[in-house]
Amino acid sequence: MKPSRSSSLETPQVYRKRGSVANGDRYGSSPQSDNTKTSSLETTDIESMNKFMKDIRDIVTTRMQREEQQLNDIEMEESIKMEWMLAASVFNRICAIGFGIVFVVGTLTFILFIVTHHRTVL
Predict the structure, then answer these.
(1) 23 and 38 in contact (C-beta within 8 Å)?
(2) Mind listing the pLDDT tens digit for each residue in 53-90?
(3) Does residue 19 fall inside a structural domain?
(4) How sure is the predictor about 5, in pLDDT bands with cuts at 50, 70 and 90?
(5) 47 pLDDT exceeds 50?
(6) Long-range contacts: 33-37, Cβ < 8 Å, 24+?
(7) Beta carbons of 38 and 20 less than 8 angstroms apart
(8) How far, in Å, CA of 103 to CA of 106, rounded?
(9) By three-state DSSP, how is residue 22 classified?
(10) 38: burial class by Cβ within 10 Å (0-12, 13-18, 19+)?
(11) CB 38 within 8 A of CB 24
(12) How far apart are the first and last CA of the chain?
């Protein structure tokens, strides 16, 4: 025979709604103790909710600051990248001009050398 579900060792909590706070049987049943414990419970709930909201605010603030820092880092990296690209293009242009000058001077020297030595040999 299977044991029934109602014979569990834990006694179920019976809650009744009073205002916006649920009260269990364990808080007492007299009207005065209910009001005192209810206000105490409401105060505890409000304090815990305030702490919870502060924690959420801190988490959101931290995340926003982290994202802002990441955006600043990305902007800084992009700025540095653009500066290096400019420096590389300037260096590239200087090298191209230098290579052109060396090429033209070398070609003219070679041509002049061939022309002048060719006449002397004949």
Answers:
(1) yes
(2) 999 999 999 999 999 999 999 999 999 999 999 999 99
(3) no
(4) low
(5) yes
(6) none
(7) no
(8) 5
(9) strand
(10) middle
(11) no
(12) 128
Q: Would you say residue 88 lies in a domain?
A: yes
The domain total for the chain is 1
Whether 28 has a pLDDT exceeding 50, the answer reads: no
CA angle 59, 78, 93 (to 5 degrees): 175
Contact 41, 34 (CB under 8 A): no
Other CB atoms within 10 A of residue 41 CB: 17
39 in any annotated domain:
yes
DSSP state of 101: H
Domain span holding position 101: 29-121
Tokens 């049943």 locate to 29
pLDDT band at 118 (very low <50, low <70, confident <90, very high): low
96 vs 119, more confident: 96
**13 lies in a domain?**
no
